[in-house]
Amino acid sequence: MERYPIFAVTADLVVLTIREERLCALVVRRGEGPYLGEWALPGGFVRPDEDLDQAAARELEEETGLAVGTVHLEQLRSYGAPGRDPRQRVVTVAYLALAPDLPTPEAGTDAAEARWVPVESVPDLGAGRSLAFDHDAILADGLERARAKLEYTPLATAFCGEEFTVAELRRVYELVWGAELDPRNFHRKVTGATDLLVPTGSTTTRDGGRPAQLFRRGTATTLHPPMPRST
């Protein structure tokens, strides 16, 4: 019988949150080789008794303390270039996780340190590259997925609390897209989108100024009409 090459599978995570008015990514300092002491995305090898989603959920909980169901988690794509891992042939399946104002992380079992880094500061982590392995490319793909999905899905609400104002939702779009939006135009678009927002009947003054209406996420799975980045 023809022998097939043996390779390992990992699950890596692009975890994004908004902290102190900045879009941040979770990175860990590796506590073992290869790339000892360098920064990387959180993740690890898939165990023999796990499927991919279970491995991603376990890594997410180990690195953030958040269980599946409390955070948006979706499969991003697979990466399997020969030589991407110097130990052996390793294919990774990357996942994108989003949640509002996540807490200070604790390093997992194979990491020496974990921290939130503003996405624009990732290239300044040093060591001749910003992240180990091919994690620069994985992070870039995760950012683009998040930015693109804000155009046609309610994904921006994953960065908000259970109740939020239109101004808070607009700020999510601005931080993820890196561009200022016209408040009146944005308000008209999101409140006119089918089943995107549900009024709670309550107001808040936490945005400053006059009381602002509070909303919850509605039942929409796509934005109709969409919200193009050119907005």
Q: Based on CA inertia axes, which overall geometry fits?
A: elongated
Tally of alpha and pi helices:
4
Total number of strands: 9
Instruction: Tell me what portion of residues adopts beta-strand conformation.
Output: 25-35%
Write the layout of secondary structure elements.
Elements lengths: L7 E12 L2 E9 L8 E2 L2 E3 L6 H13 L7 E8 L10 E9 L12 E8 L16 H18 L13 H12 L5 H10 L4 E8 L7 E6 L14
Parallel strand pairs: 1-6
Antiparallel strand pairs: 1-2, 1-4, 2-3, 2-7, 5-6, 8-9
Q: What would you say about this model in short?
A:
By secondary structure, this protein is an alpha+beta fold. It contains 4 helices and 9 strands.
Description:
With 231 residues, the chain is an alpha+beta fold. It is built from 4 helices and 9 strands; from the N terminus they run E-E-E-E-H-E-E-E-H-H-H-E-E. Strands 1, 2, 3, 4, 5, 6 and 7 form a 7-stranded mixed β-sheet that branches. Strand 2 (22-30) and strand 3 form a beta hairpin.
List keywords for this structure.
231 residues; alpha+beta; 7-stranded mixed beta sheet; two-stranded antiparallel sheet; 9 strands; elongated
